[in-house]
Amino acid sequence: MTENERRGRRVDLSCRVFFFGKDDFEGEAVLVDVSTGGCQISTSETIAVGALLKLSIFLPDHKWPMRVDEVIVRWAQDGRYGIEFTSIRLAQRERLRALVMKGKG
Question: Which tens digit of pLDDT belongs to each residue from 4-19?
Fold first, then answer.
């Protein structure tokens, strides 16, 4: 999926993201935008398209991070990565939905 094929309402939001993959792969990124189905991050780390990761997103609405149990990297370009949320708990999905709906009027 390319950046232009993204679905759903997106909110521009800048906050810290930690990601974790297999074989102790981990890193830090900055959230660029977010929707209920995924997000875009920017990082100096190299992440393979197709990689499965877990995310901790430090959203401004809470003191603790939103955890996403599984994501897949759908595209990469110039240090930016398109991420699809493939497994997210209901409470976290509701938190995300409220944030996205509040973010755009």
Answer: 444 568 899 899 999 9
